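Late entry, evening session. Most of the bench is empty. Finally got around to the prediction I had been postponing all week. Sequence below, unchanged from the version circulated by S.P.
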Amino acid sequence: MNKIVFVSDQFYPRTSADSEQIVSSLTGLHKLCPVTLLSAKRPLSDPTTNTRLNEYYNVAADFSLDFIPISPNIRGFEKLIFSVKAAFSIRKEDFSLVYTRNIPVIIAVLLFTPKPILFESYRPWPSRNFLARWFFKQMKNSRRFLGVVLHSEFAKKSYSEIGFEDNQLLVAHNAIDPKELETTKSSRADLGLPEDKIIVCYSGRVSTSKGVGRLLAVAREFPDVQFLIIGSEGEGEIEQEASKITNVKVLKWMSRAEINAYLRASDILYIPTSVQARDKAGNTVLPLKTFIYKASGTAILAPDIDDIKEVLTHNETAILVEPDNDEAEFRGFRTLIDSSELRRKIGLKAAEEMKGNTWNLRAERILKFISSRF
């Protein structure tokens, strides 16, 4: 049986979609084979525990935990130091393979250990810059580089274009825990929300780089609709601008269980209708929230772009609108606001689709891919 160490240079837990994705994915994998998460910690801090991860991410993680102490430094240096320390730590352990989302870890493991390594990413790295393109061209011919697990066909295309064979690449869309499909709704009164208004909700990183500013323009266009922005961690540009709009409420970052209550109490869930985060900032491709939104059973408005269309279908599981087009976005919202039946229909269909898209099933596909590459 494979014994996997997942090496992550992050400090857990933390408020990021990638940390949530990693913990959820490893929870599924550990049901099928032994898994250890090797992550960073500060030298004088208490290491995180499974109990803390479970409370923070609303999962049932029971995989093993190990840590590499990293003193505060420039983040780039921290990543390099962590990667080298991690490689020397695992070289003496009996892990079958190393699994990571960090490029420096790939380099360190190949340089300092004899172990095979599997990479996972949502980014189309080879099309991001010439260094990444060169690096992955070398990796495709490395005997110990098993391949790449990707979060979208959109990302896969960039690896195929530089010569990766199909059997070196696995597209494994992100997923949900089956409990996300529970249909019990919290009352709006309990959440401090108006009973008599349409509610639009965005949950995620509150940043202009994510295209969240577009939602503020929509709020001004629909003054009778209540807008929620969940995930604030300070007083940034979005928070400051939102404070000037009476029908926008900004809420702090919440646990997954708390967020789910708001998603189900809303009428429309929002994925920013822009290519800014994907093509300009380069930090979002087929975001994790897409799957969490689908599982909630609440109607979704999203951009009509290639990666999103892999899992959302216009008029069936979402309303998709032309990206970066204000008028198209307003029309899409008006369509959903005016039809409770349409909202109900596409919400139910989206939730139904997610029944076959769980972390456990995703883990089975990844292990099958690993077996084919070993």
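Two things to note before I forget:
The chain has 16 helices and 13 strands.
The chain has a mean pLDDT of 94.
Will write this up properly tomorrow.
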